[in-house]
Amino acid sequence: xxxxxxFPTVITFDxxxxxxxxxxxxxxxxxxxxxxxxxxxAIVMARDYIGTFSLDHPLPEAGQxxxxxxxxxxxxxxxxxxxxxxxxxDKTPVKKTLSIPSYLNDAGINEGLNFSQTxxxxxxxxxxxx
Length: 130
Hints:
Blueprint: E1 5-13, E2 23-27, E3 32-36, H1 39-56, E4 74-80, H2 82-89, H3 102-110, H4 115-126
């Protein structure tokens, strides 16, 4: 079940910043900062910041901290499903029972093939996952 939370985020463009990361994102409820190379990247990085924070800390109720923004700032909501974020990072192996033709089994054994790794690679490729 999806449990989306949206945190107010203030994004400031800093043309004086010497790096490519000219967009500073501030999440007041977490008192946390991150940066991006574009407005969209700053939003993605803010979502990742919130997700990473949720791995070690309970998330507070969103929108409880007051803040001020400059007229030139972008104030937006950054949403995240913390449970989905945690699941995406879960690398716990899961045992699967499957059947393959005997000749593929024999050929794989002869080549020293790691069947589990091969299956995981094929699933990632099929689903276009990293």
